[in-house]
Amino acid sequence: MAPAITLAADAPTLSSANTGFMLICSALVMLMTPGLAFFYGGMVRVKSTLNMLMMSFISLGIVTILWVLYGFSMAFGTDSGSLIGWNSDWVGLSGIGLTDLWDGYTIPIFVFLVFQLMFAIITPALISGALADRVKFTAWALFVALWATVVYFPVAHWVWGAGGWAFELGVIDFAGGTAVHINAGAAALGVILVIGKRIGFKKDPMRPHSLPLVMLGAGLLWFGWFGFNAGSWLGNDDGVGALMFVNTQVATAAAMLAWLIYEKIRHGAFTTLGAASGAVAGLVAITPSGGAVSPVGAIAVGAVAGVLCAMAVGLKYKFGYDDSLDVVGVHLVGGVIGSLLVGFFASGKGQSEVKGLFYGGGLDQFWKQCAGVFAVLAYSLVVSAILAFLLDKTIGMRVSEDEEVAGIDQAEHAETAYDFSGAGGGAARTAATAPVTDAASKKVDA
């Protein structure tokens, strides 16, 4: 894709309104990564809280540097073989003028690249939820760098880069159902199949330690997702971004309600964890489809995702894979649902004239969606498993058994999330602060 516009009389000109809008959207997407950190951090046990926060935060550092050095060029540079991009003028973000516009749009290249950077940051962070309690922080940081390079950057080019095979095929992915959520969910599955289960999986209680923190994280994700989705139209001139904004709210609400209803019927209670998880499932599912469906279609997408994702989170117990925080059940399954339902609910009145089966369009778009979904799923699953295997056999992916039982926060970060040394006294204080030497006692306390 050309790095700058031509001087033709009818070429786009810089829009300060769209530029400002996209900068705000970029900031909203950036906020999603700390939101994800809180969401995941509240879902783990006390002894893993800081590690969970750091697994998200470190992506902000690593992926940002890689994006500047070569990631943007790989994802959005001139196409090579429909598989990867490259533009030497973009290496280190050199050769980009302050007012050079993204080809065909009214925003500067710098604005587009920073918006896409935030997508690149959060995608590997999503994977971390499946690996809670057991992965060395150094190994995780190296995995993020390698995975972004060999999985995310190429897949982003397939889906969104000019010349990418999925882009040229006509696969609809408005804001990242395949490139972000299926990509991350499949990667999570690949890694956990290699590194194995947590100690005590299916035996010990592993309940969230702070549901208020989970709800705070979910709220920040919901808020930031408006930038994630509505901003992906790269402007605000024709109403499509507004449609996506509305559909984001509608589908998320429908998914939350559907998850809670399913939960009440299946388990007898409306839980806060279910509300938060249902909302995220709806956000995931509407991400690829929201620019193509009507608000009523968004209700259907959200409701289907809410029920099916709620059902899917239990598969880890049936099949024995330890997806700690349900990345597979929510992000992989939700991404697949949202992407495939485009083939049924695309109205032809949103981002394009493409119609799904329920609007008289037949199954043509559905098969295109299948191609994108299963290609990304297979590639990310296999390559992620290979990366995890190589790291495990070289530097080791997992902390020791004693460190996992005692708590990964202390082992990897020399900190704890909560300091109770100044709270209360007597036996309660002694029990909370006294060092524990016996591994079995550590396990019970955790």
Mind explaining what this structure looks like?
The structure is a single chain. With 446 residues, the chain is mainly alpha-helical. Helices cover 65% and strands 1% of the residues. The protein has one domain (14-398): Ammonium transporter fold (Orthogonal Bundle). α7 runs parallel beside α9. The chain contains 17 helices and two strands. Mean pLDDT is 92; it is low at 1-9 and 426-446. It has helices at 16-43, 49-76, 109-127, 137-160, 165-169, 177-195, 211-230, 240-267, 272-289, 295-312, 315-319, 327-345, 364-394, 401-406, 408-413, 426-433, 439-445, and strands at residues 78-80, 84-86. It has a two-stranded antiparallel ribbon. The chain crosses the membrane at residues 20-40, 52-72, 105-127, 139-160, 180-199, 211-228, 240-262, 269-286, 292-315, 327-346, 366-391.
Summed up, what is this model?
Keywords: Ammonia transport, Cell membrane, Membrane, Transmembrane, Transmembrane helix, Transport. The chain is an all-alpha fold and about 450 residues long.
Q: What is the strand content?
A: under 5%
Question: The CATH topology is what?
Answer: Ammonium transporter fold
Tally of DSSP β-strands: 2
Specify Rg, calculated over alpha carbons.
22 Å
CA(first)-CA(last) distance: 52 Å
What spatial order of strands do you see in the largest sheet? 1-2
Low-confidence stretches: 1-9, 426-446
On the 0 to 100 scale, the average pLDDT is: 92
**Silhouette:** globular
CATH architecture tag: Orthogonal Bundle
User: Which structural class best describes the helix and strand composition?
Assistant: mainly alpha
Q: Helix tally?
A: 17
Let me know the largest β-sheet. 2 strands, antiparallel
CATH homology group: Ammonium transporter AmtB like domains
Order of helices and strands: HHEEHHHHHHHHHHHHHHH
Number of domains: 1
- Proportion in helices: 55-70%
- What is the CATH class? Mainly Alpha
